[in-house]
Amino acid sequence: MVITPNFASLSALTGKNLACGIGTPVLVPGSADCQEQSRRAEVTANGSVTIAEAGGGEGIWVPYVPSRTLYGWSTAGAKWMGTGPFSGCHIAFFTDGTRVGMAHIAKESNTSAAGDAWSAFSAQGGITVLNEWKVGLPDQSRYSASYIFLDLLADKVSMARLDVHVTGMGGSDGAIFAVEKVL
């Protein structure tokens, strides 16, 4: 069953296994450290939960790439935006005046080419950063990661975080152990 990943629908998924089937995109060596990369996607919840690329999907997924900043824009008909896994990277929401954007900013350290590239992109004319913050490791005692979903259908900004005990650091699969309403 395809779901719109908002706080209400995600809250019912605690204890189920999550698999993110959207892999790391192939980037051209030497390409920009901050670039637009997004995928049409859907989230299904049957016996398990799957995030998958789907040409007709109702969501926009911004993939994670180590040492890079990737971002995407909302599009006509999109009901949600999402990105992950997070275990210390930054997330940002921004606008160009007509569209909402989401960025996954890889931060392996306090200074990084991805962070510098994001700063240059977000400082350019026409971009207004609405919010940016670090999404820390959700469980310090185990391998874990978070996924963030922005509900584009809500009357006011609505966002949820899904926390997963993953099978290895940087992993994208495992048991959902918490869902939190961020906004």
What is the secondary structure topology, with strand pairs?
Blueprint: E1 2-3, H1 7-11, E2 17-20, E3 34-36, E4 39-45, E5 49-53, E6 59-62, E7 69-73, E8 80-86, E9 90-95, E10 100-105, H2 113-123, E11 128-134, E12 144-151, E13 158-166, E14 173-181
Parallel strand pairs: 2-5, 3-7, 6-8
Antiparallel strand pairs: 1-4, 2-14, 4-5, 4-6, 7-10, 8-12, 9-10, 9-11, 12-13, 13-14
Protein described:
β12 (144-151) and β13 form a beta hairpin. The protein has two helices and 14 strands. It is globular and about 45 Å long. It has one domain. The chain has helices spanning 7-11, 113-123; strands at 2-3, 17-20, 34-36, 39-45, 49-53, 59-62, 69-73, 80-86, 90-95, 100-105, 128-134, 144-151, 158-166, 173-181. It is mostly beta strands. The strands form two sheets. The protein has an eight-stranded mixed barrel. A five-stranded mixed sheet has the order 3-7-10-9-11.
